[in-house]
Design goal:
alpha+beta, six-stranded antiparallel β-sheet, two-stranded antiparallel sheet, 4 helices
Length: 138
């Protein structure tokens, strides 16, 4: 069975964030990292070259595919800040209505900049995602 392409690394999270070109995105990344660290009680870790993950979980799908992943994470992409929420977006519909300007996919939340959203609601979403966890996707 194939391993996940994205694996945890020993790359410095602080150095990665410090290397982000746009100042607003660096600041937003630090704020999201603090929220995720509070929600998980764990330190951040780089996954691959551009994802910052918090906590850990082992998953196994009905197909037999299994692996290790983080509980919540994010990546400061060129177009937006991408948040990875392992509980799935469907479990957060009511909260997302109160969030502000955003887009979603199955387990991702896309935010252009934190000033577009309600930060208290974002923190609630992150905490709820950690509490629900990946079991909701199984």
């Amino acid at each position: 069975m194939a391993e996940n392409k994205t694996q945890p690394t020993d790359q410095s999270v602080d150095a990665f964030i410090d290397g982000i070109d746009r100042e607003q995105q660096r600041t937003d990344s630090r704020i999201v990292a603090e929220m995720m660290q509070r929600a998980t009680g764990t330190k951040p870790r780089m996954w691959g070259e551009s994802i910052i993950g918090f906590g850990g979980t082992h998953y196994k799908y009905a197909t037999g595919r299994e692996g290790d992943w983080f509980l919540v994470g994010f990546s400061p992409r060129k177009q937006n800040l991408t948040l990875y929420l392992t509980c799935g977006i469907n479990n957060l519909e009511e909260d997302l209505k109160r969030l502000g300007k955003h887009k979603t996919s199955v387990s991702c939340l896309y935010i252009n900049k934190l000033s577009d959203i309600n930060l208290l609601v974002l923190e609630e979403i992150i905490q709820k995602s950690v509490q629900i966890g990946p079991k909701a996707l199984a």
